[in-house]
Write a structure and sequence with these properties.
mainly beta, 5-stranded mixed beta sheet, 15 strands
Length: about 190
Amino acid sequence: SIVVPPVSNATDFSTPPSLAACQNTAFTFVRKNTPTAPTSFQWDVDGSPAPNFDNKNLVYSFTSAGPHTIKMTAIYSTGCKSTKTNTITVNRAPLANFDVALADRSSCKTPFTVNFTDLSRGNTQRKFDYGDGTPSVLEPSSNSATHTYTKAGNHTVSLIAINQFGCSDTTDNLTYKDYIKIQVPTLLVPP
């Protein structure tokens, strides 16, 4: 019988839209079906074998921004190999961070207005969760934010910073547990 080696363009895999991805965010490169089923695969990232693949697909998180080369090699039972290489751009992730002056983190009455300092870098949008049940709203970045608490209790605050590429901060949110404390005293009247 005559064995025809696979055509090199038969090997293909999915890439991020516009060949761009986000730093520190896992992306799955999925092999596309080929006319002849390969017996195994090898994935390389920037010239080194990729350790995290299931013999078909690659899950990879890029820790550095910039161009990265992904290569998939399909190996067939005949010993023939077929490769596909793509270069993708990995966009830098923003860094979320915020602060509130120590004196402004607690109160004994409501309403209590808190001024947040947004220390995030590399972002164009942000989303605060003030921890009191009010909806989080995606808004343009600025150096400050103000929120008025109307309920007593301990409030856990988080912030998501997002850049122009849609990449979010490396932890997806920065959380401060029980960051804002509002303890309204209760007057006990003896019977």
